[in-house]
Write a sequence for this structure.
């Protein structure tokens, strides 16, 4: 992964296209041991997360370019996307038809969304997800539906256990609302 400062790149290359062989001049390089499927930027922690084809989720410190956490996340299908949400991360699988919610640096899947097309397997079905931090909602578009679907993420407050230890925050998909549209949506961006 090349983490590029756009202002520096524009200054050095004067607005000209940048060949990949020259990215090292304007970017921090993060070397990942296995092929990457997706990555996302975590602003509050100044970190980058990657998910590789073997389902290894790794979080990297941007300042020193070193990984500070890594874990292989269980799942039946190959990862297809990675999205930070407040207090967690969502891993998309099977071309965006399965979404797993995990806590930040957590090993266990807290909640799962799975899209199916009736009782038959649909290898051409896919989805796209984006998170709206203003309303803690994961928006998903599926190419088989003429709609956008909103999944409100709810967070349990920390509660002491009988032994006096802090259990931590749990998260789950709490409410689901579908907004119909004129055609299936295959990609979208949330402007915040």
């Amino acid at each position: 992964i090349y983490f590029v400062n756009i202002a520096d790149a524009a200054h050095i290359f004067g607005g000209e296209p940048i060949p990949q062989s020259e990215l090292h001049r304007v970017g921090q390089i993060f070397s990942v041991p296995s092929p990457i499927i997706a990555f996302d930027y975590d602003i509050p922690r100044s970190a980058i997360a990657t998910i590789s084809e073997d389902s290894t989720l790794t979080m990297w410190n941007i300042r020193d370019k070193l990984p500070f956490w890594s874990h292989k996340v269980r799942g039946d299908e190959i990862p297809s996307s990675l999205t930070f949400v407040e207090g967690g991360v969502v891993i998309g699988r099977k071309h965006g038809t399965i979404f797993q919610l995990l806590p930040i640096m957590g090993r266990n899947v807290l909640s799962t969304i799975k899209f199916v097309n009736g009782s038959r397997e649909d290898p051409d079905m896919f989805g796209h997800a984006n998170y709206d931090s203003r309303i803690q909602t994961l928006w998903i578009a599926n190419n088989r539906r003429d709609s956008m679907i909103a999944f409100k993420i709810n967070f349990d407050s920390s509660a002491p256990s009988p032994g006096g230890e802090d259990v931590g925050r749990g998260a789950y998909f709490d409410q689901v609302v579908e907004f119909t549209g004129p055609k299936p949506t295959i990609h979208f961006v949330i402007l915040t």
Observations:
- The first strand starts at residue 2 and ends at 4.
- Residues 92 and 99 are 4 Å apart (CA to CA).
